[in-house]
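job 3f2a | input accepted
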Amino acid sequence: MEQQIYKGKLTQFHWLKVTKKEELTKNTFSLEFEIPENLHDNFKFEAGQFVSVKFQSHGEDVINDYSMTSAPYEKKISLGIKVTSPDGATSQLFKNYNEGDELLVSEPSGRFTVISKPHEFRTIVGFAAGIGITPVLSHFKNILHNEPRTRLFLFFGNKSSADLIYQETLNNLVKTYGDRLQVFYFFSQEKTANSFFHGRLDAKKLNLIINQILHLDDTDEESTIWDAVDDVLICGKGEMIKTLANACYDHGIPKKNIHFELFEEFNDDIYPIEKEFPLVENIAVELTMFGKEYLAELPTNEEKILQQLLIQKLPVPYSCKSGICGSCECILEEGEVELLENEYLTEKEEEKGHILACMSIAKSKKIKLNFDLS
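job 3f2a | predicted structure (374 res):
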């Protein structure tokens, strides 16, 4: 039986059987699901996407999002999951569900995706930290499989070698595609034979990577490998994403070619806000959420819309507050706003009046927002 569940948007869930469960490290594990023949179309996905899993934790229903490590050509759903606390929800998922059990799994979603270009010569660089490797692994497997002219470089940070996940998978990819894939491991809390690989992936480390690894380009003697980078993929905690995204931008990569996925709530802007807006005070807001109407008033437009609504305890759907996840997507039915950074909405959605409340500044005395998109 399938179920429609509201999680910001009405989402379709299906019962899927767990076919494989594997402990990866002391605090990470993987789950693999069988896709029945009649649900193959429902579970078509793009590399970098995620699914939501509904399960019981301490007698209560929990819905968590998990990125897929599987690539579309593998025709299965494989998830990498981190246990964040000994008695938290993910710990309950690991302890209470095993091979043969069924779980409610949503149809794939998410926009941490890149357009496939199998006939072009491309260079793609990935940065991942910890469990952030999951969607990047999906991307790398898919690109290597489908794009014979693309070369990839992965820089993967962990606290220690004991925390390193999917090393065997990555090593096998290097063995198969060694002429097009290079993987470099960094450890922040473990000494390394070469001090270059000790420390976090940050702006300083990126500068060293550009100058010591991505410098000489065998395919073009007059430029560097970094000069040839087409797209950058970043996944990890918010501060890492913010630091690396800005560093990549400062080193010449256009923002539209820097793609990132967040693994936790993050309240800061990824890129600095460079615009200034005329002050608007006492802004009347009408909201439609969950089929109900709400009224609110924003004192000024000096803060973004979502953040002010949450302060007033309104049940606005959100996750990251950074314009990445799309949970706070809504339709601007009346008034004027300025949408700042946008890593989620398509041009067509923006043309239809869709905005992200977390990245929008009110510019009129009244705005009307509809969060019920489906």
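job 3f2a | The chain has a mean pLDDT of 92.
job 3f2a | closed
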